[in-house]
Design goal:
alpha+beta; RNA Polymerase Alpha Subunit, Chain A, domain 2; 37% strand; Ribosomal Protein L25, Chain P; 213 residues; 3-stranded mixed sheet
Length: 213
């Protein structure tokens, strides 16, 4: 787990009008809350937060939150929710959840396929059914990604959630043994295209020399 430095300021005003004013000032309305702390309204610099997202993505983010005007105590928080506008261009609101390092938390972690599948070498197609998985662990044990070795996967074979072992410290909560990654046969379109090419080649070879006369 990487703790990312993030500065924030306490804000007194709330409501849609105050939020719009903040955004015009290049600030993102935010809130931080936790089991042992009262919710606190914050504002976060848009450029600083955008830099974090560009470098680290949006999943599994943990912050060393430094709040101006607070008690001076740094707060460890994770990104719980990120709201964007309709076009996905502007940050509208952030939810930050204050956490304790010795308590397990639920975190979404990206799935990463590693290796070269035997089935792909034979013409199969890799399908990542779940691009993120929820894991339950202490913050310090949070993996950057769930790496799945697909080297031995043939066409028609799959990796299910119960096949994934992340060690004793990390659990993947699930109720059913769902598919995470699979290797599927070449698409129907590709097969049909190949068949058409064979027919055309056969037709050209079988056509009599005076066929055009």
């Amino acid at each position: 787990m990487e703790l990312i430095e993030l500065n924030a300021s306490i804000r007194e005003s709330h409501g849609k009008g105050a939020a719009r004013k903040l955004r015009r000032a290049k600030q993102i309305p935010a809130i931080v809350y936790g089991k042992k702390t009262e919710p606190t309204l914050l504002s976060i610099d848009t450029a600083a937060f955008d830099k974090v997202i560009r470098e680290h993505g949006v999943t599994g983010l943990f912050f060393n939150l430094k709040v101006d005007g607070g008690s001076g105590k740094e707060r460890i928080a994770m990104l719980k929710d990120l709201q964007m506008d309709t076009f996905g261009l502007n940050y509208m609101h952030l939810d930050l959840h204050e956490i304790e390092m010795d308590t397990k938390v639920n975190v979404m972690v990206p799935v990463e396929a590693i290796g070269e599948s035997a089935g792909v070498k034979e013409g199969g197609l890799l399908q990542v059914i779940r691009r993120e998985l929820e894991v339950l662990c202490k913050p310090a044990d949070t993996p950057e990604s769930v790496q799945i070795d697909i080297s031995d996967l043939g066409i028609g074979e799959a990796v299910h959630v119960e096949d994934i072992d992340l060690g004793d410290a990390v659990e993947i909560p699930h109720e059913v043994n769902f598919t995470v990654i699979t290797i599927v046969p070449p698409s129907v379109e590709e097969v049909e295209a190949d068949d058409e090419e064979e027919i055309e080649e056969y037709g050209e070879a079988a056509a009599p020399a005076d066929a055009e006369e």
